[in-house]
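Progress against Task 2.4 (sequence-to-structure conversion) is shown through the following example record, which the project officer requested during the mid-term review.
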Amino acid sequence: MIVEKIEIKKYESSLNGELRFVDAEMSKDDCEEMISRLVSWKLGRLTPTRHFEMVYSNEKKEAEIDVYVSVPLPESSKSPVDIVKYVFNKLIEFLDLYEKVFEDIYGIKR
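Structure tokens generated for the chain above:
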């Protein structure tokens, strides 16, 4: 697995995090299994908004995964740094879940 991008941007009313990584060890056949097991991550609480997209590139022979997290900026006294940490932690939470599911599917720990 190679992380290609991790980015957090501030917009007028939200902080949006994006994570992009590729996995050359994931087979095309196992992508569907991985997606079905990861769906629960984006079906959690309403906040933050979470989404991921996973496709298999036949040309590159690897899975390409994009993960998005969006948190509305509160009008409370929460520190902007705390909100950035929260968004970052949600992106890392997805990576952790991805690794656990990978281990379940393939029976190997990376």
